[in-house]
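Retry 2 of 3 after timeout on previous attempt. Resubmitting structure tokens to design endpoint.
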């Protein structure tokens, strides 16, 4: 099943107040609530374009696959990202600076 995954995009952007964020980016309060509650069964072309503009992403980033692994859309299934805090736990400030330096290259 193809599902809308706005919450993943919001988490990746570090947004604390999702509804306010969407409203501040041109969505009506009703649209924001519908998107966040998962009540939207489908998205129109204009809504998809607005989401992609807001989150600087593609339509593939807006949807996830929660169906059978043998379906051809299963490649849309997202891997669970590692917890960065756990990965950095116990690292010295110098090690963290080195990691950040390498990431910026």
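Retry 2 succeeded. Sequence:
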């Amino acid at each position: 099943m193809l599902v809308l995954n706005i919450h993943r995009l919001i988490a990746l952007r570090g947004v604390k107040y999702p509804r306010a964020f969407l409203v501040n980016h041109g969505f009506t309060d009703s649209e924001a609530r519908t998107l966040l509650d998962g009540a939207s069964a489908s998205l129109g072309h204009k809504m998809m374009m607005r989401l992609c503009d807001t989150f600087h992403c593609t339509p593939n980033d807006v949807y996830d696959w929660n169906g059978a692994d043998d379906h051809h859309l299963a490649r849309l299934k997202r891997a669970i990202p590692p917890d960065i805090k756990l990965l950095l736990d116990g690292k010295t400030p110098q090690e963290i600076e080195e990691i950040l330096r390498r990431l910026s290259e």
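Attempt log closed. Residues 2-78 form one domain.
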